[in-house]
């Protein structure tokens, strides 16, 4: 049987009498690339924050990397990586300083940080930029570096909140090559995106509408079920009934 690294049962978060996340249930398998889709305001960020141990659910259950989201938030944080557009790297530290800072925070040994950061710099082709401040790098490079830093401590799961926003399709494609490589190495990838071409790259996708998971399957099966030619069309058919969002 497949190892499940996220198990989520009727997970709920309400703010007063508003249910931002309303009884969502799903499992994510080890090494899977799991796309977490939904229109603006559907509840993705709220759900992701609970799964990352950053906020307490109102009700329901979930375990992430085997740890309970109510009682073991610190263990969750140590065993995951997280990257979002809002929180990623320190712009006023250099490339190398960012790698060693985050490596250190996640408990990677100094010697290993040194060895592996050299490797990483080579892989990313950043040999000439190691002493540059991250703030000076183009957005696409920042995102690739932020992803590499988020998985530097070899977490069980990496959570990516719209990781490729604002960059060109070629750079997004290169970013996804990195995601595939991480998944091949056994890291589970939980990713939100608004780009439907990226949804096609996921093994399975869940689509949230107004706080609920309305559909969950592989891109192929979803297209079949909704008699759609593209994920764009699936998404539109599901999300057009949404009451929230812009
Ligand atoms: N702290 C809060 N207090 C009250 N309402 C909140 C709070 N946080 C989020 N919400 C509301 O919950 C709903 C879900 O928000 P959330 O940010 O999770 O959506 P999202 O799917 O991530 O949207 P987006 O794609 O725009 O980031 C929204 O209507 C939002 O206004």
Radius of gyration: 18 Å
Distance from first to last alpha carbon: 41 Å
Number of strands: 10
Helix/strand order, N-terminal first: EEEHEEHEHHHEHEHEEHH
Structural class: alpha/beta
CATH H-tier superfamily: P-loop containing nucleotide triphosphate hydrolases
The ligands bound in this entry are: adenosine-5'-triphosphate
CATH class: Alpha Beta
Number of DSSP helical runs: 9
Q: Explain this structure to me?
A:
This protein has 246 residues and is of the alpha/beta class. It has a single domain (4-239), classed as P-loop containing nucleotide triphosphate hydrolases (Rossmann fold, 3-Layer(aba) Sandwich). 37% of the residues lie in helices and 26% in strands. The protein contains 9 helices and 10 strands. The protein has helices spanning 44-51, 73-79, 95-105, 110-124, 139-150, 169-184, 196-200, 219-225, 231-239; strands at 4-15, 18-29, 33-38, 59-64, 67-68, 80-84, 157-161, 188-192, 204-209, 212-217. The strands form 2 sheets. It has a 6-stranded mixed sheet, sandwiched between helices. It has a 4-stranded antiparallel sheet with strand order 2-1-4-5, covered by helices on one side. A hairpin with a 2-residue loop joins strand 4 and strand 5. Helix 3 (95-105) crosses helix 4 and helix 5 packs parallel to helix 6. It is globular and about 50 Å long. Adenosine-5'-triphosphate is lined by residues 15, 18, 20, 38, 40-46, 244. This is ABC transporter ATP-binding protein. Keywords: ATP-binding, Nucleotide-binding. Residues 6-235 form the ABC transporter domain. InterPro entries: AAA+_ATPase, ABC_transporter-like_ATP-bd, P-loop_NTPase.
